[in-house]
Amino acid sequence: MSRISMRFDGGGPYGFGNVRRSQELGEFLLRQGHSVSFNPLSERAAALLNRAADPQMVRPDVVLLDVPYAGDEVLAQARAEGAKVLALDYEGDVAPDLVVSLQSVRRLSMGCRAVSGVEYAIIREEIRSLGTQHSPGGNVLIIVGGGDSDGLSARIARALAQDCAEITVIQGPAGGALEGMPEGVEVVTHPADLPARMAACRWAVTTGGTTMLEMLCLGKAVHVIPRTDPEEQFARRFEAQQTLLGLGMDSLRLPDAERLRTCEQKGPQIVDGGGCQRIASLIETL
């Protein structure tokens, strides 16, 4: 078994995704018998971690790096400690030993190995354990990430309010008060039963990140409103396979039953929930 230091960042303008998936992968590795330390790289990331941060591991065998920026300094430090480095979605200049990316790796440093594909998506155990969930009734669930500082949730709710009787907006742990919400829309802040709510909804509106992948794994039809260019590029891969209800605000509308069924069937075929096991196997090769 290996000694693994999970080093990650997130929060604020970076969102919640890197922190959440690093914790999930770290917990999975712990259950497999590895020695794991959780080492957030900022106070904001530590605040989003759903457990106490650990003291930084001395002489780890492997550093698993997951940051929403280049991360060269963190990687160089890991190198100085003599550790092998596996980096998720890494685009810096200092070469890790291995890069794992959901999308195609756009540039690769000399001497670095890389694998890519949606099969490496890190899906939470709470989601994986629920299996595929197809709900004939239920509400529309709007989840746009850890925070919503620009009112995206309210804009989505207003676009759907006339045609959808039941709309629930999930406000993440990093968000403030939501304004401009239509009357009758339920707003729930960082609920403890979020996986169950995701499984029970009829369909969902998300951004193009981790929550989109979790919804697809559950067999939920999803309309995606990307926040960034990388999110849009990523979501277009699913749109091209007719896995999404739609992409962008302009096409957001109440879907018909046939379209819902098609998306419900395709999602779990593409996002099967096995990403943690595949990454754990790659760590063993280091």
What does this structure look like?
The protein is of the alpha/beta class. It has helices at residues 17-31, 43-48, 72-80, 125-128, 152-160, 194-200, 210-218, 229-240, 257-270, 275-285, and strands at residues 3-8, 35-40, 62-66, 84-88, 98-101, 113-116, 140-143, 167-171, 186-189, 203-206, 221-224, 246-247. The strands form 2 sheets. The protein has a 6-stranded parallel beta sheet with strand order 2-1-3-4-5-6, with helices on both faces. The radius of gyration is 19 Å and the shape is globular.
Question: What oligomeric state is this?
Answer: single chain
Look at the helices and sheets and give the structural class: alpha/beta
Sheet having the most strands: 6 strands, parallel
- The spatial strand order of the largest sheet comes to 2-1-3-4-5-6
Shape, per Cα inertia axes: globular
Helices and strands, in order, run as EHEHEHEEEHEHEEHEHEHEHH
Poorly predicted sequence stretches spanning 5 or more consecutive residues: none
Radius of gyration: 19 Å
The proportion of residues forming helix, as a percent range, comes to 25-40%
- Calculate the mean pLDDT score and round it: 90
Taking the alpha carbons of the first and last residues, their distance comes to 12 Å
The count of helical stretches stands at 10
Structure summary, number of beta strands: 12
- Beta-strand residue fraction: 15-25%
